[in-house]
Amino acid sequence: MPGPRSGHDQEKGALMSTKQIVALLNSHVEGDQEQFLSIALQIAAQQARAGNETDANALKRLVQKARERQGGAPSGQTPIPLARPRGELQGLVESAYPKTTLANMVLTDAIRARLERVVREQGQRAVLRDHGQIPATHLLLVGPPGTGKTMTAAALAGELRLPLFTVKLESLFSRFFGETAGKLRLVFDQIAQTRGIYLLDEFDAIGSRRGDPNDVGEIRRVLNSVLSFMEEPNSTDSIVIAATNHVEILDKALARRFDEVIEYHVPDHEAARILLTRRLGQLRLTAKAWSSIAPMTDGLSQGELVRAADAVLKDAILENAKSIDVARLRTALEDRQSFRRRFHA
After folding, report:
1. Sign of CA dihedral 50, 54, 60, 66
2. All residues at 6 or more sequence positions from 164 whose CB lies less than 8 Å from its CB, including other chains
3. 175-187 confidence digits (pLDDT tens)
């Protein structure tokens, strides 16, 4: 049984508390509300590790109430100042503060319902914890390029008014091969300290099956580290989103760590029509025009459809045109189809 703390240990604990108070006051004076709340969550995590679950949960609930109050800020006012990666995380993580929402996306009813459930759980996470439940915090998004995976991360950040942190995994490997697990440790430490949406893009770079013929020892070590990191408590309820175009090569043990696995597909004709109509805006896409170009949208991703629409829209802006040029839209779609055939050949 451990004995009483020594005077030195007590003094050290007091110093740590003093530093936290100084950091809290400094963030308050600087008007950095997100930093203020992040420090409060760090204290909550310390209390939880020390076994003081009651105090830890009380702090988390207060932080949530503060953020919910910020959520009612007037339109156009930033409710939470943008948190930016610092120190060794610079270059590994890119930060943004998207204004995109789920309403801006063309989604199937099934995918929209699942994402809206994630938003609802996050908004009521204190209620869930009071009943012994936790909100969904780990999402795996799979599907072809350009089908909306990255935009989903931005939309969730916009819905929850949280910063979006994008972790560039391939950059991490190329710059720090041999130290990747340690760098990922920094990322997961930030997840535990700073609430946000964390996008691990091109996740198959670290999630490929163990034992793959092309596997190397470093990738196995990194994968094992990620498996361990994802089991750790997420005191901030940050959302970790992994996106991949190659779900078939993901390690099954890793896939089981996710609360939600959402599969994206290229748009069908109706989704393509809605997307083009929204993108073209005042250049109305009539039923007659749509019937002539609908077959040309087959197999095109959301990203490819957007690029085709933007090419026509920019021409219209520069030429001060008031209506859509169907021939140009047809050509733009044909160009995207030609590129897709070459790319996938």
Report:
1. negative
2. 95, 96, 97, 98, 153, 154, 157, 196, 197, 199
3. 555 677 777 788 8
> Assign residue 330 a region: left if phi > 0, alpha if psi is -120 to 50, beta otherwise?
alpha
Helix axes 180-193, 217-229, angle to 10 degrees: 20
**Could you state, in order of their start, the residue ranges of all structural domains in the chain?**
14-70, 87-263, 269-344
CATH class of the region 87-263: alpha beta
**CA–CA separation, 156 vs 254, rounded Å?**
22
pLDDT tens readout for residues 52-84: 878 877 887 887 777 666 554 333 333 344 455
Evaluate whether 136 touches 121 at the Cβ level (below 8 Å): yes
Residue type (1 letter), 309: A
Residues facing residue 166 across a β-bridge: 94, 199
Residue 339 backbone phi and psi in degrees, to 5: -65, -40
Q: How many CA within 13 A on the CB side of residue 281?
A: 9
8 Å CB contact between 186 and 229: no
3-state helix, strand, coil in the chain (%, to 5): 60, 10, 30
The contacts of residue 167 (CB under 8 Å, 6+ apart) are 92, 93, 187, 198, 199, 200, 201
CATH architecture of the domain with range 269-344: Orthogonal Bundle (1.10)
Quote the pTM value.
Answer: 0.69
